[in-house]
Design brief:
By secondary structure, the chain is mainly α. It has two domains: 1-42; 52-222, no CATH class. Helices cover 62% and strands 0% of the residues. It is built from ten helices and no strands. Helix 2 crosses helix 3 and helix 4 (85-101) packs antiparallel against helix 8. The radius of gyration is 28 Å and the shape is globular.
């Protein structure tokens, strides 16, 4: 009888322990699923650009608080990290829109003159440099490429800012450990480099005077 009681107690203990382990596993699974769902809700795909005033405020502050490109890049990343994930995506989308709006032959001509040459990638980074100069400079040059003459610095040979192209992506990665481009809704956001228009150039490097027609001031002062 005593042995039977011991066996019965052991059986009940093992059964209770197994049920407890199952409950713990179920709870862990529920927590894991909630965490995954929370991430999905917190970082949904977006096509919404950051408010333009806020965008330019961040850029203008980076100009005021730094004295060189490297420091400006680091400042921008740190400021963008303070935004929500959706706003960080929005910063990148606003940048894409500004790049899209300045993808034209006249500004490319200006970039070619000021840099002494300009590839596809160089033109992208030139426009990043222009954005990083602030709202006023950006829109003046957008409307009149010859206005670049006011941004020329003696002794400077390169007018590009490659690092600016990556600031939002780096901030997003630092903050979320995820890739920003995975959260852009490309079905709704179409003003990006995949949809740049096909340009027809009326200027030709082999005929320099054609460049002078488009950017007479830059050509006269900078072309060699």
């Amino acid at each position: 009888m005593k042995n039977s009681a011991i066996k019965l107690f052991s059986l009940l203990f093992v059964s209770h322990f197994a049920m407890g382990q199952t409950n713990v596993k179920n709870q862990d699974l529920a927590i894991a699923n909630t965490s995954t769902l929370g991430d999905t809700i917190a970082i949904a795909k977006s096509s919404e650009m950051l408010n333009e005033d806020l965008y330019w405020t961040i850029v203008e502050n980076s100009i005021k608080q730094t004295t060189n490109q490297e420091d400006q890049e680091l400042f921008l990343i740190s400021e963008i990290e303070k935004l929500s994930p959706k706003e960080m995506i929005g910063f990148r989308l606003r940048t894409d829109k500004l790049l899209f709006d300045t993808y034209n032959e006249n500004l490319w001509c200006a970039a070619y003159i000021i840099n002494g040459g300009c590839s596809d990638g160089g033109f992208e980074y030139f426009r990043c440099w222009l954005i990083a100069k602030g709202k006023d400079a950006f829109y003046k040059v957008k409307d009149n490429p010859d206005a670049l003459i006011n941004l020329v610095t003696k002794g400077q040979e390169n007018y590009e800012f490659e690092g600016f192209w990556y600031v939002a992506m780096n901030a997003f990665k630092n903050k979320t450990d995820k890739e920003l481009f995975s959260y852009i809704d490309y079905d709704r956001f179409v003003t990006n480099d995949e949809n740049y228009p096909v340009l027809k150039f009326s200027w030709n490097v082999d005929e320099p005077n054609t460049m002078g027609v488009i950017c007479p001031i830059l050509f006269k002062n900078l072309w060699k």
